[in-house]
Structure formats: C-alpha cells, structure tokens
Amino acid sequence: MVSRAGRSSLGCLLLLLVVAAGLYVGVNVGEAYWRFYEFRDAMRQEVRFAKQIPDDRIKLHLAAFADSLGLPQQATDIAVDRTSATISVSAEYTERFTFPFFTRVVRFAPRAQGPL
User: Fold this and answer.
1) How confident is the prediction along the chain (116 residues), in pLDDT tens digits per residue?
2) How many whole angstroms separate alpha carbon 93 and alpha carbon 107?
C-alpha cells in the first residue's frame, strides 16, 4: 500500500495560505468601507436635524468626525446644499490600497439627502 499522508498536509497548508491572504486583503479593504459607512451615517444624522442647525455647524461637525475616523484630508471638504424643501450633504475622497503585487485607488463619495 502507498501512504498518502503528505498529500493531505499540503492541502491543509494551501488552504491556510489562501485564508491568510484573504484576511490580509479583507481587513484593509473592510476597514475603509466601514469608515465610509460610519461617515455616511453621520451625514444622515446631520440631515435629520438640519432644520435647526446652520450649514457651517454641519460642516464643522462632519469635518471633525471625518478627522476622528482617520479619513483623508479630502473628506473634510463637505458640501451642504439647501433648497426650500430639501438638504443634501456630500463629500468625496480617495483611499489607496497597497497589496503585494498591485495598488488600487478607490473613490468614496458619501452623500445624504432629506427633507427640511
């Protein structure tokens, strides 16, 4: 009989390598998307109470929140547009992901809109 013990060990090692590579990529990318969703949620919260808050204060709150999240400086350039019936808050920034064989730049554009 021929022993096949080495074959299963190699398969397990390959699986662990693939899982480790997935975690390496997933943590960095996942963290950036998590910060994007938190920033967008903060924008939505500001829109909910925008009737009582002036535009400058909304920009100040969101810029401070972007800074606390560790977002790039571009994220603090926040646009607030009011009409007679609606308000829109938006920003735009990019994040760079560096992987072993390539670099990827992703553009994020969080936006919140609601009635006044």
Assistant:
1) 555 555 567 778 888 888 887 787 788 889 999 999 999 999 999 999 999 899 999 999 999 999 999 999 999 999 999 999 999 999 999 999 988 788 999 999 999 999 98
2) 6
